[in-house]
């Protein structure tokens, strides 16, 4: 898959050697609804005998317009988004910088300066996709602005349990710790990518050594609690049990730093500094404070067995 980064303020030079069937959207999460839109664009590309493409934007619009505490965390980091799109068979990925120059374009200017210059022959998007300054452009308007120069397809909503599959719904599920339901909407487990750092070694002292992970900046992490996970390092995947939280048995919750700790089953080695992947499979319990270290150790052992049972059913 070819990746092309674009900025409106630098101009978009007309591409003449290819025509594109383009799926357009922010696509955070690349959930089942997004996948439907993208697959439609791929099918159209095959029918027309042209290249398939996806246009996404970076960063999220909230990072331009919202205050520091109103920015939306990412479900899928850009690197992961690229990996998934490549596996879906997309030929070209356009990453457009979401800055003031882009945000100021009228719907007409977006079509003329972006889509026409990229030699787009067909545009596919979700029924609720908007474009142009203040999101005034709709897919109905897109068809009118195309003036017959390119086709358009508006994909109706994809629902699960009679509710629209959406990034907003996924964020809510993650904030509630519902990682299994999140996986159902994504079509795959929710994934965190981060780096293993040196911790306080407390897990090792308790008999359950853990990998302490710092996730990528601005990424969503699930609700505090204990989870059954799959952990990947150096291309090898292991089962594990993960705790997200502030260690209330040891620290004051208002002062402690949130950590992600994974007890990786059947692993013995050095992970410090490594980039690792955590796939969240199911929620086991909420975070809690224990009256003694012995009670905590007993509960950790039970959590480990629970995780093993959950993961054995996923094989």
Automatic annotation (TrEMBL):
Pathway annotation: Cofactor biosynthesis; FAD biosynthesis; FAD from FMN: step 1/1; Cofactor biosynthesis; FMN biosynthesis; FMN from riboflavin (ATP route): step 1/1
CDD domains according to UniProt: FAD_synthetase_N
Membrane-spanning intervals of the chain: none
Cited SMART domains: Flavokinase
Keyword Cell division annotated: no
Record field: catalytic activity: FMN + ATP + H(+) = FAD + diphosphate; riboflavin + ATP = FMN + ADP + H(+)
GO MF annotation list: FMN adenylyltransferase activity; riboflavin kinase activity
Domain Riboflavin kinase: 185-312
The UniProt record lists the keyword Transcription regulation: no
EC number(s) recorded for this UniProt protein: 2.7.1.26, 2.7.7.2
Keyword terms: ATP-binding, FAD, Flavoprotein, FMN, Kinase, Multifunctional enzyme, Nucleotide-binding, Nucleotidyltransferase, Transferase
Family to which the UniProt record says this protein belongs: Belongs to the ribF family.
Name recorded for this polypeptide: Riboflavin biosynthesis protein
Organism in which the protein naturally occurs: Sporosarcina jeotgali
